[in-house]
């Protein structure tokens, strides 16, 4: 299930520090979201603020779903033409991260997700996400070429 190299990385001090900092960041974001929702709920009402957050999340998921469908069709056409779709893979990674941010309840993550909807930002974030996955993506490309 896990690659041996992945398990060995847990003995690396730098990896463990990055892993713990990521966990800290993941735990701080919901606290900030709750504080923001509580602060704004006092001003405009709790039900309205929750309805706005749910509406923005749903609308964002629908937009990202449409983008993912377009990116997947672009990947399929690129593979059919025999072109390695590196930019499409990056856009797909950025779109999936955007969808995850829209799924998290709150306004801060929604604002970041709206920024990720911009094509240049999404591609840049996607490139950062797939930077170390080049060989796996090329294997995926070879696999997709067979079908």
Provide a compact summary of the structure.
The protein is an all-alpha fold and 147 residues long. It contains 7 helices and no strands. It has helices at residues 4-8, 13-44, 46-81, 86-103, 108-116, 119-130, 134-146.
Care to describe what's here?
The chain has one domain (4-146). The longest helix is centred in the middle third of the chain and has 36 residues, at 46-81. The chain is an all-alpha fold. The protein has seven helices and no strands. Helix 2 crosses helix 3 (46-81), helix 3 (46-81) runs antiparallel to helix 4 (86-103) and helix 4 crosses helix 6. It starts with a helix and ends with a helix. The model has no long low-confidence stretch (mean pLDDT 88). The chain has helices spanning 4-8, 13-44, 46-81, 86-103, 108-116, 119-130, 134-146.
The number of distinct helices, counting runs of at least 4 residues, comes to: 7
Rg from alpha-carbon coordinates: 19 Å
Q: List SSEs in N-to-C order.
A: HHHHHHH
Name the shape in a single word: flat
Largest sheet: none
Strand content: under 5%
Number of domain modules: 1
In terms of structural class, how would the helical and strand content be classed?
mainly alpha
Mean pLDDT: 88
Number of strands: 0
Q: Report the span from N to C terminus.
A: 25 Å
Spans of at least 5 consecutive residues with low confidence: none
Proportion in helices? over 70%
């Amino acid at each position: 299930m896990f690659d041996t190299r992945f398990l060995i990385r847990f003995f690396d001090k730098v990896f463990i520090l990055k892993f713990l900092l990521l966990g800290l960041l993941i735990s701080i974001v919901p606290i900030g979201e709750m504080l923001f929702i509580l602060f704004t709920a006092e001003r405009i009402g709790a039900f309205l603020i929750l309805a706005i957050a749910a509406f923005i999340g749903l609308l964002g998921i629908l937009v990202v779903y449409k983008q993912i469908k377009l990116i997947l069709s672009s990947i399929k056409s690129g593979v059919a033409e025999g072109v390695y779709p590196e930019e499409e893979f990056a856009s797909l990674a950025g779109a999936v991260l955007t969808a995850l941010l829209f799924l998290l309840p709150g306004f801060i993550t929604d604002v970041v997700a709206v920024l990720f909807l911009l094509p240049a930002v999404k591609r840049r974030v996607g490139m950062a996400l797939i930077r170390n996955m080049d060989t796996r993506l090329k294997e995926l490309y070879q696999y997709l070429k067979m079908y």
